[in-house]
Amino acid sequence: MSLDDVFRLNLIERTCEECGATFKARPDRAGRFCRRAHATAYRNRLRGSGLPSSEVARRNNRFKNYGLKHEDFEQMWSRQNGQCAICRRQMLVGGRNSNSCHVDHDHASGVVRGLLCLSCNHGIGKFYDDPLLLERAASYLNRKVEE
């Protein structure tokens, strides 16, 4: 039996602080609001921010995944002049294009290193973030080819 199965069996009944409805929740979750009240509160926060939902989602993901607050992201963006830290190509904040902005971080420590375009972020990922492999690749590219 998986841990999820155990939690499903042990759901506890709670009362929504917003609307007073009862709902079931896992005992290890805060669960102060029912789904309907939670969704309504989220939509109201989006409307109040004046930002498109995609931008709010990006900000939330940056904080959830990397602990990066929006102010810190803005500082990094300004420090790099909106350019990729490796290839210096101008980046876009959103989207899935090759020049879209991605947060680069050390997978071992979780520390954010900088902002990269999609191509550079994938490129260093393909080399397992290993500087020695990247040096070997650079040496390989710089060697003279005999004709």
Keywords:
His-Me finger endonuclease fold; elongated; two-stranded antiparallel sheet; 147 residues; 13% strand; alpha+beta; 2 domains
Catalogue the unreliable spans.
none
Query: How many beta-strand runs?
Result: 4
Please state the CA-atom Rg, rounded to the nearest Å: 22 Å
Domain count: the total is 2
Taken from the alpha-carbon principal axes, the silhouette is elongated
CATH fold description of the largest domain: His-Me finger endonuclease fold
The helix/strand class is: alpha+beta
- Give the amount of beta strand, in percent: 5-15%
Mean pLDDT: 87
Q: How far apart are the termini?
A: 64 Å
> How many separate helices?
6
Order of strands side by side in the largest beta sheet? 1-2
Spell out the helices and strands N to C.
Answer: HEEHHHEEHH
Q: Tell me the name of the CATH homologous superfamily of the largest domain.
A: His-Me finger endonucleases
Main pleated-sheet profile? 2 strands, antiparallel
What top-tier CATH class of the largest domain fits best?
Alpha Beta
